[in-house]
């Protein structure tokens, strides 16, 4: 019976550990979160940078813009110098260069306002990112294929949804284009809140499993007279 209890307890600890590790693993990649994914709309896409390159501080982030996107407006980010690289008459890349290297243990976000193509419904918009660090660099440029295992360095991306009725090519959003910094901050805050809730839930389950383990191991073994 004692061995059975220990087996169940260890199983509970392992399950709790998986719950805790899952959100951490998901946040280990550079992600892209759009405040709207509707075709033909103005969208603020927020890129979350969770860590450096194998412990090395980040010095620059270069975001490649999909060929189908013609309009891009970078959001200023305190502590970073922003520049753009032309691709013909459009912006093909946005580069954020750190005024001071961003430590591996500190995260940051970067926001771009883009116009999603009207004919892009159902397609995936990928934004490959080159992360340059004091030592080395990481290329976040691998395609994620549905049904396949997630690649080690996936390119940040999102799927375009159907145009919203009365969207008018995003003119409603365009009226608030001057507030895109606030929109980006809200999107980032929402992402942070979800990650925090998942993390706290994992910690709670892990703590509960640990308490059960301690109680089970301290329980005296019953012996027959």
Give a structural overview.
Helix content is 31%, strand content 29%. With 225 residues, it is of the alpha+beta class. The strands form three sheets. A five-stranded antiparallel β-sheet has the order 5-6-3-9-10, with no helix packed on it. A four-stranded antiparallel β-sheet has the order 1-2-7-4. A two-stranded antiparallel ribbon has the order 8-11. Helix 1 (2-26) packs antiparallel against helix 3 (180-218). The radius of gyration is 23 Å and the shape is globular.
Radius of gyration over alpha carbons? 23 Å
Instruction: Give the CATH superfamily.
Output: Uncharacterised protein YcnI-like PF07987, DUF1775
| Count of alpha/pi helices | 3
Task: Describe the largest sheet.
Answer: 5 strands, antiparallel
- N→C terminal distance: 17 Å
Instruction: Count the domains.
Output: 1
CATH C-level category: Mainly Beta
Strand content: 25-35%
Query: How many runs of DSSP E, i.e. beta strands?
Result: 11
Strands of the biggest beta sheet: in what spatial order? Answer: 5-6-3-9-10
Residue-averaged pLDDT: 78
Helix content: 25-40%
Shape: globular
CATH architecture: Sandwich
